[in-house]
Amino acid sequence: MTSSHRPLDLLLVNPGGHRRIYQNLGKDLVAKEPPIWAGLLATAARHRGHSVAILDANALELTPEETARQVADLAPVLTVVVVYGHNPNASTFAMPGAQDICEAIAQHAPERKVMLLGGHVAALPERTAREENVDFVCSGEGAYTIHELIEALRAGGASQDLARVRGLLWWDGDELRTNAAAPIVRDLPAEMPGVAWDLLPMRLYRAHNWHCFGRESREPYAALYTTLGCPFTCTFCCIQAPFKAGEAAAGFDPSLNSYRKFDPDHVIAQITNLVDEHGIRNIKIADELFLLHKAHVGRICDGLAALNADLNIWAYARVDTCRDHELLARMRAAGVRWLAIGIESASEKVRADVDKGYRPEAIQKAIGLVRDAGIHVMGNYIFGLPEDDLGTMRETLDFAKSLNTEFANFFSAMAYPGSQLYRDANERGWPLPEKWSGYSQHSRDCLPLPTKHLSGKEVLAFRDAAFREYFDRPEYFAVVERTFGAETVQEVRRMVAQPLAREHGAALVKA
């Protein structure tokens, strides 16, 4: 809360636009997730003594103009539009909503100072500063930059003050200046221990439809991290973008990358609070890779099992982390009901080219172990990696059908800013989407990367056809009915019956 004599220091804005990103799926199928990074940054700012508010324009379904009017009414010292997204890739296709909000603030509240921050922004800081209608851009994670910028603005915002703000890009007259990098937060328990749940409209969040197959309600819902960053550097992933400069500034050993852990006891305390204060049972663990360190995962799971709260948790895992029977059993006792496993491609040629993926027999064994523990599997697949052709994509789809997991996601390969694929695409002149919305897997203007053998349009056509072919099968319906009940089968049928409009669609491709 702010006092009557002191204005609000910081307003964190989560941009909207989910219906533009997901088309008709955005109405009721996809999740409406809490902005985790906005919540973390709010906690970090509070730790440093700043007054903070969060405006979740997405959850509240505010128009850009409505958002701008609230910014004007609240009159914060600094407004930060946070475009992290609910996964690393989502940051880029959240940009259209962020752009609209920044333009509206410039029109309706031009006196307010605005900074853009997030994974996409950190991947392309100079381009963002030159293209977007904002005063500042953050080149890194954000916590230190926000604190130092508020202090600089309170001191008057002179050039000499702004020049000391680490991780800041700003305009000095007609010159764009780039300050020294800010470190990433090293001591998470002390400086950024968790999400400021009290600042969020918790009643408005909902889980994905598949996450709650067989359950009465998708609401209420929450998502949180137990770790930050990732120790891996897959060519198609952009997760490292907001951390790359801060690692060196913080004195991190490069071999450690951006990976950091939250204290398990604090994670348990946060979830306990979500259960007790908000009645939440549906939870996403948003870590890029939750199932990695047994001691960390085990402590969290044992603490959650003791709650006896009928939790419905899902998390990400790798094939090679699903081999521990005992740990999987502890996870299930804690309420982990789904694991999303990166399978990517069934083709050895395709996997070798991107240094990612696992042999089919290893995948089958891992999925068997997960299911034996009573945990459902969501398989994640990618079509359109550089060596993909119609035959290899068909191989992947047929393999997915043979696994017949309880749910599956089919992605087209995208060159997300901050990934090696994006750098490769620019160096080699590969076609990229004209607008940031085109990086969304479900948008009207979605445009995947071409492969060495196929156009992006052909990849997209195969992906959309593969989605329908996987879900509209008697074998899949049988698994769903046996596991979740007949009503869920009807829900899947309704999902499949909602086609996506595509500007870059092509004739149905068959191998």
What does this structure look like?
The strands form three sheets. The chain has a seven-stranded mixed β-sheet with strand order 2-1-3-4-5-6-7, sandwiched between helices. A six-stranded parallel β-sheet has the order 8-11-12-13-14-15. The chain folds into two domains: 10-178, Cobalamin-binding domain (Rossmann fold, 3-Layer(aba) Sandwich), CATH 3.40.50; 196-416, TIM Barrel, CATH 3.20.20.70. Residues 507-511 have low confidence and may be disordered. It has helices at residues 18-22, 36-47, 57-60, 64-74, 90-93, 95-108, 119-123, 125-131, 143-154, 159-162, 188-191, 244-249, 264-278, 294-305, 325-334, 348-354, 360-372, 390-403, 420-428, 456-471, 474-484, 486-496, and strands at residues 10-14, 52-56, 78-82, 114-117, 136-138, 168-172, 175-178, 221-224, 227-228, 260-261, 282-285, 312-317, 336-344, 376-383, 407-412. With 511 residues, it is an alpha/beta fold. The chain has 22 helices and 15 strands.
Topology:
Blueprint: E1 10-14, H1 18-22, H2 36-47, E2 52-56, H3 57-60, H4 64-74, E3 78-82, H5 90-93, H6 95-108, E4 114-117, H7 119-123, H8 125-131, E5 136-138, H9 143-154, H10 159-162, E6 168-172, E7 175-178, H11 188-191, E8 221-224, E9 227-228, H12 244-249, E10 260-261, H13 264-278, E11 282-285, H14 294-305, E12 312-317, H15 325-334, E13 336-344, H16 348-354, H17 360-372, E14 376-383, H18 390-403, E15 407-412, H19 420-428, H20 456-471, H21 474-484, H22 486-496
Helix pairs in contact: 4-6, 13-14, 14-15, 21-22
Q: Structural class per helix/strand content?
A: alpha/beta
Kindly report the average pLDDT value. 90
Tell me the CATH superfamily of the largest domain.
Aldolase class I
List the total number of helices. Answer: 22
